[in-house]
Task: structure prediction
Amino acid sequence: MARKEKITKDNIITAAFEIARREGLINVTARKLATEIGCSTQPIFRVYKGMDEVMNELFYLIADFFEQYYLEYKGNKEVPFIRLGMAYISFAEKEKNLFYALFLSQDRGGKTLYELLNGKTGALVREINKSREMGVTNPGDLFMKLWIFIHGAACMMITGDYDLPDEETEVLLIESYHAYAK
Result:
């Protein structure tokens, strides 16, 4: 009878996620994974061909985590892009290492920012369509103008240079939306 493997793909990717969340993506190594799981590196490479495969799967897990974060984020649903922007800034504040891995790394798993924000649920497309329904003739252009502010605020959040309360940030985003929508 074959011996049952104790170290599963789920064990490995969960450990990789926790290391990335706690210490940053750069610290997800085979050795650290083995230590986190409580095994040698052998079981990791029995399950995965190499660390590139682990990192690729990890990236998509982080992307799914952000999408779930956005979907659960309570905020303004009336004005397009505001809830998405506020969730993005909040994610940068609360999940710095995951934000960095997902939105500030050179390799985004072959995905564009648009694809990451749109996710599996089509979040960005819905926001663009909602903006169009509200009379905005070029919602893509409007989104890019807002995104410069949103991404800048999120990056400043990472470095500790952003200290506006959520309420003020939301007001600024709403005012910007209306200014650019004209």
Q: What stands out?
A: The mean pLDDT is 93. Residues 10 and 27 are 19 Å apart (CA to CA).
